[in-house]
Amino acid sequence: MPMIIPTAALRSTLLRSATFRIVPLSARVMPCAWTKVNSISQTKSLHNSARLWSKKVAVSEGSNIQEQADPEHDLEETFEEFTARFEKEFEAAYDLFEVQRVLNNCFSYDLVPAPAVLEKALRAARRVNDLPTAIRVFEALKFKVDNEQQYKAYLDELADIRKELGVPLKEDLFPNGEPETVLAKQP
């Protein structure tokens, strides 16, 4: 059975006659945490260019390190495939639990979902008749984007669907702040 060791330890100690599996701390390390993203298209290019996957490394006596492709972990997903997958999952969501589960999975990646995915999420929330989930889509979007301009760009892109479904923003419902502070101020 191969040993599991971190990448840094493999660099510092080259053990002989063993097969190691390099397991990154995060299977999907994206540069979004360090890089400012100024547009929706930049998010797409970052997703396509920055992937960190597990590799098998064979170390044998008297030889150099050789990387071997691991078919189990060579599943690279493009932004278009990601978008298509979540559009399909939102269309198939049949109850509130499924809609919220897919929404949680969609926002768990280190990228901002495409407007088409968010539209499918809003339609799924409407299909299961849950307005709070639709409002939370925009809350999650606000926390996911890097700056206010990106948030406004998404709001502009999704304005028609918001109007069609009648989904307000949290900022519209509570213009003075959080619901708790608004309710506490009322006599």
TrEMBL record:
Pathway: Energy metabolism; oxidative phosphorylation. SUPFAM superfamilies: Cytochrome c oxidase subunit E. Transmembrane segments: none annotated. Component of the cytochrome c oxidase (complex IV, CIV), a multisubunit enzyme composed of a catalytic core of 3 subunits and several supernumerary subunits. GO terms for cellular component: mitochondrial inner membrane; respiratory chain complex IV. It is found in: Mitochondrion inner membrane. Component of the cytochrome c oxidase, the last enzyme in the mitochondrial electron transport chain which drives oxidative phosphorylation. The respiratory chain contains 3 multisubunit complexes succinate dehydrogenase (complex II, CII), ubiquinol-cytochrome c oxidoreductase (cytochrome b-c1 complex, complex III, CIII) and cytochrome c oxidase (complex IV, CIV), that cooperate to transfer electrons derived from NADH and succinate to molecular oxygen, creating an electrochemical gradient over the inner membrane that drives transmembrane transport and the ATP synthase. It comes from Henningerozyma blattae (strain ATCC 34711 / CBS 6284 / DSM 70876 / NBRC 10599 / NRRL Y-10934 / UCD 77-7) (Yeast). One of its GO terms (molecular function) is metal ion binding. GO terms for biological process: mitochondrial electron transport, cytochrome c to oxygen. The keyword Ribosomal protein does not apply. Gene3D superfamilies: Cytochrome c oxidase, subunit Va/VI (1.25.40.40). This is Cytochrome c oxidase subunit 6, mitochondrial.
